[in-house]
Structure prediction request, 377 residues.
Amino acid sequence: MSVTGIIFSNIHDNNLPELTRLRTMASVPYGCRYRFIDFALSNMVNSKVTSIGIITQANYQSLADHIGTGKDWDLASRAGGIKLIPPNMTAFAQGNRREYVTSRLESMKSATVYIASRKEELVVLSDCDVICNVDLGDMIDFHTKTGADITIAVKKMTLTPETAMKNVVIKSDKDGRMTDLLVYPRDISGDHDISLNIMVLRRDKLLEIIADASAHGYTSFNTDVLLKNINSYKIMSYKYDGYFACVSSLSEYYSCSMELLDPAVRHALLEIKDRPVYTKVRNSPPTRYTEGSFVRNSLLADGCVVSGHVENSIIFRGVTVSEGAVIKNSIVMQGSFIGRNCSLNCAILDKNVMLKDGVNLSGHQSIPFYVAKNSIV
Prediction:
């Protein structure tokens, strides 16, 4: 069956306000060289989904710069390809002129014209706060064979009351059909299937859902569509057992980024045969390590100059680490400059940050010290 993809770039921005003040959740940098959207895009491209629309709402200049023509994902095509869908494209969205819409269902209302114009039979919906490398081709086959109206990717996780309230818990019978859905529950723990916010459904079914939601003023896909139709729709759970991380806070962004220092995690996410993760290619010189520099258990992108000490850290492109500087357990994003004799521990430096000589910044793993983009400290 032919498939088109829809990616939501903004709906989780409020979960990570520090990093999304000037960008979308989709364009948040991750792992030296990637952006969050690279995983959703790569999942689709690796499964032969070559027609993809990205729904935007605000702050999408950085996203547009990253996506460009889509050539880095082999999506620079007149037939299909990749398209940014700007906000408020339709009459559905005009009646309520809020500047910022976070609901998945409301976002799809604004993309009705785009969805209706597509010819593909199936639609894959994906958020940008989930980091995983899933075989969507297998998920689409599962959806077709089971005759489902909607198929949702789920992952079995061990939850605490604190982590459960950040997730949508899905309960299914032995055949995989959803029997209950708990939206951000506060009183459960133990092993449960949680939604990965990746769904497959027929395009005509999606248009029917959007029209019904517009007529009744529905705003939540989980409660107003899935939960209310749990008996009338055949909603199936597709089990995913690979690496998974969901970013809903700055501390979670820090912890899942630092997990990449584990070779097993990098292999499970970035080194799967036939499922590479694509990103925008930049022509940068190799990183240069000067005499006296020291690097251990760290990831460094191209174009850096390292004269200091880097340990257990993630360093993006074009970072300068001056002589005497010590960086430990930290994330330093593209174009930042670390002056002489600076000290960083459990810190996150956004793009183009300048630390003057002798600056000492320290946070904690649970509360990393964050420095905003383009800051001078």
